[in-house]
Amino acid sequence: MSDAPELRDPRAIAGLIREIGSLAAAVGRPVTFMEVCGTHTHAVAAAGLRRMLPDGVRLISGPGCPVCVTPVEYLDRALALAELDSTTVCTFGDLMRVPSSLSSLERAHAEGRPIEIVYSPRDAISLARTNSAQRVVFLAVGFETTAPTIAAALAEAEDDGIDNLLILPGNKVMPPPMRALVEDRELKVDGFLLPGHVSVLTGWECFRFLAEDYHVPGAVVGFAPADVMRGVADLLRQVRDGRAEISNLYGRVVSARGNAVAARMVERFFEPVATGWRGFGEIPDSGLGLRDRYAHRDAGRIEVALPDPHEPAGCACGDVLRGVIDPPQCALFGTVCQPTNPVGACMVSSEGTCAAWFRHDRLTGVAS
Amino acid sequence: MKRTPPDRLLLAHGSGGRLTQELVSSTFLPSLDNPILATLSDSAVLPELPPGRAALTTDGFVVDPPIFPGGDLGHLSVCGTVNDLAVAGARPLWLTWALILEEGVDGELLAACAAGAARAAANAGVAIVAGDTKVVPKGKGDRIYAVTAGLGIIPPGREIADQRIEDGDVIIASGPLGDHGATIMAARHGLEVGDLISDCAPVNSLVETLFAAGIDVHSMHDPTRGGVLTVCNEAAERSGKRIVLDETAIPVRQQVRAVCDVLGLEVLGLACEGRVLAWVPGAQAEAALSALRRDPAGRDAAIFGTVEAMDPGGVPVVLKTEIGSTRPLDMLSGSDLPRIC
Hints:
The complex is a heterodimer of chains A (368) and B (341). Chain A is of the alpha/beta class and 368 residues long. Chain A has helices spanning 10-27, 38-47, 49-52, 66-69, 72-82, 105-110, 121-130, 147-159, 175-183, 196-202, 208-214, 225-241, 260-269, 317-321, 353-360, and strands at 31-35, 57-61, 87-91, 115-117, 135-140, 165-169, 191-195, 218-221, 246-248, 270-277, 281-290. In chain A, the strands form 3 sheets. In chain A, strands 2-1-7-8-9 form a 5-stranded parallel sheet. Chain A has a 4-stranded parallel sheet with strand order 4-3-5-6, sandwiched between helices. With 341 residues, chain B is α+β, with helices and mostly antiparallel strands. Chain B is built from 9 helices and 13 strands. In chain B, helix 1 packs parallel to helix 4, helix 3 runs parallel beside helix 4 (107-124) and helix 5 (179-188) packs across helix 8 (254-263).
């Protein structure tokens, strides 16, 4: 939050840009780096970093926005749960406007379905405590960063006997889709800016497979403009030298192994399961499912009638998430699909690649 | 006649009968009293208007929570109405004030909002000359809503309009931006924000200092709902000019930035309820700034933007970022939803 001012100092940034320029010249060919964290997408766009990079250095956004990668089937199930008697669904705000097959949480809310926006799983616990006759279903989405708080809420519910709190498990973990990305022949990525917040929890070592198995370099970076630019410079240096390593440039908060307490908390409740990612399909071990002994808290095991999953026609969210195209290459971008009328999930959240691009990176006519 | 406010509002308090009368005399008249209101007639009959054009505005207020650090819904409703008149260049004179109350609402909340409205009216030098109360069944409303109208007079010779915005104008903020919006969001989500309070205040006397200093103010806005983003985009659209904001010059308190970081909100999309944005000619920039700063309410005034000619098809509002890049600034789309991480 209050990063050191030198991480935002225009002169320091200008120095890094010059360094990036000469490294890019030394590499001598166009390179593409991918960030895989919604907060990076947002930070890059908000500071206008992409515009400052030399022509041969392309920075793209991968599947880092939790809302964007949540498949339409998950929303269909959430909406079906909201139709059940004595059931309240609570969700992080971002999910409200994501289109489901037939509707959206926002639309269902306007139609009178009991759907509440919460800011933390703790709010869901309060709701469950004060509405003991209601089944309260929390939509558990997000990456390694939200999983521990959801586990903590479940632990509190277990300890205090709050039997009416359930979750719809939708949490995802980052390494498996990154493996899928580097195995994708269509994708040409020369290096990854690795997610700073996720790495606080997981530690940076879980990304070593990128360098060791696939010879793709990575740099764990923070979120201030200089953090991101140092990451780009580090990746360029590795490409120039033909090296592939995982650099930890966010050492002020990221360790090799991460937060063991949080990991134990998550392990108590969750186990790896195959789960669907918008744009990728199902990826083994990429989701967090509730363990059988907590089946009573798993709203995913409640029988509901689901519609046939339907993705909006023409939406290229999947290709955007895999970094195969930039948002403007989607036929719907900026015309049919806008922040006021999002067709695909990437336009809904401010972390979504399309929304960030629309809000910050439309460059036509910007005075330099 | 009964002089203490009721403990709880009953549907009967809105019936128009004896309980309504008691509510008015116990809760509203003591703090809002003035000779025009005191007649309690069907219409407020106003004295002859001063010379100039009349400006008329109306507004609805639904803030949650209704009492917040630095103000309350009553105070806010009067400030908001006064400020809409002031930024049109009008001297606000009279307001009407109607409340829609939910059955069961606490009498103390009502009394606090009436006192807040009275305090704001006294600060702004306006009179609330007509009022109404309705009570809706429990669950059909959220405690208290206020609806106002305000009448003011634009003295002869003043012309405030976005169409007057010219190349070379500078944009001045009368104080730090986003205090009100951040205070409300922090209160709603139980965030500790130290001494941060809403900026809710009438701005009419601050606006008058600009005119008194002889500044040729081209346009003014109070950046309420939608914040600076909405005001600047609308001003750019109406004037056909490009607005360029300088991120390093935008006055924002550290606590406000922190609230935005935690909740994932856009600082420039937060509401202010006691700030003015003024477009003045570049040649008068310093004079305008020092006029504002002489008033305690304007001591943190800052120039944070400029106006340029617009290329066809260009982006209307541009932010020069703190690291020296640029990006377009759009209005918010829908409500600013909190981000997950």
